[in-house]
Amino acid sequence: MNLRAWNLLFLPLAVTGLAACALGPDDTNEAAEPLFDRTWVAEEVKGLPVAPQVQSSLEVAVDGKVSGHTGCNGYFGSVIIDGQAMSFGNLGSTRIACPEPVMSQEDRLLSALDSTRGYRLQDGTLLLLDGAGDTLVRFRAEN
User: Are residues 140 and 43 in contact, defined by beta-carbon separation less than 8 angstroms?
Assistant: First the structure.
């Protein structure tokens, strides 16, 4: 097998394997375990309480995938967790138009996820934090 064929065959596998490792949480990060495989329901987004009857949520899988609902649209993507650092990447969502105040809450939530640089767990609450350590979103555990 020539070098070009070798690179075409094995390079994509190596890149995929490394990317999968980078997206997931650190195996030694036991502090992050309570994050995984549960639904987190937003109580406050960027300093404002969530709108009545509008549920925004976040689910974090142990493999580094995230999904949730903004209150209007579903979203999905990936997360990197390293100690108390957290950042979301490759976020996408459906784009159905909804009435106010649902759309404003959706915009604030997606912006907050994009700005997240850390997290803190305390008493069944998940706080997403910006780079300065200020709270962007406060979630409570649903299950």
Answer: yes
For the chain, the residue count is 143
Helix or strand (DSSP H, E) at 82: strand 74-82
pTM equals 0.79
Amino acid at 67: S
Distance from C-alpha of 18 to C-alpha of 23, rounded to nearest angstrom = 9
Contacts for 89-93 with beta carbons within 8 Å, 24 or more apart? 89/23, 91/66
Query: In which element (H, E) is residue 139 found?
Result: strand 135-141
Check if CATH label 2.40.128.270 holds for domain 25-141: yes
Q: Which amino acid is at 53?
A: Q
Q: Determine contact, residues 81/29, Cβ cutoff 8 Å.
A: yes
pLDDT digits (tens, 9 = 90+) for 18-76: 444 444 444 546 888 999 999 999 999 999 999 999 999 999 999 999 999 999 999 99
Peptide bond into 12 cis (omega under 30): no
The DSSP secondary-structure symbol of 72 reads S
Instruction: Break the chain into its structural domains and give their ranges.
Output: 25-141
